[in-house]
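Q: How would the structure tokens look for this protein?
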Amino acid sequence: MANDATILTAKGVKELENRLDYLKTTRRSEIADLIKVAREFGDLSENAEYDEAKNEQARVEVEIGNIEKMLRNAVVVDEGKVDLRKVGVGTTVKVFDKTYKEEIEYQIVGSAEVDLKKNKISNESPVGSALIGQKVGDVVTVSTPGGDLIMEIKDIHR
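A: Here is the predicted structure in token form.
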């Protein structure tokens, strides 16, 4: 896999495409309106509204470029063909964290799709990389900055 490759699920591709569409259409238009209004305030050399609008425009253009690059270099995981006998990108894994005595589910995704609020973790993260390739019943020790975690894999599904 090339260094620029971005591992994505089909859902992740769709979310990026929707974000890109929003940025290119709606957000660009909104920023153009902000710039137009800010220009009407006069002297651009000391116009905070104009500067802020231009900074936002630059931020959006960088985000557009980043998303376009991710989509161009996307390696899409066919979730229908994911082997559910072992943990991999596109699987959801239920583990029992023996360290904290709790059960938790993680969806393993590529780094572009990480959303910790939804327990979507990267295959490259300490927990994700330790779980990759493991099977139900396996006990895994995960080295994290906060100390070692001991996890037992209870279930693997989509």
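Residues 92 and 107 are 4 Å apart (CA to CA).

Residues 10-39 form the longest helix (30 residues).

Upvote if useful.
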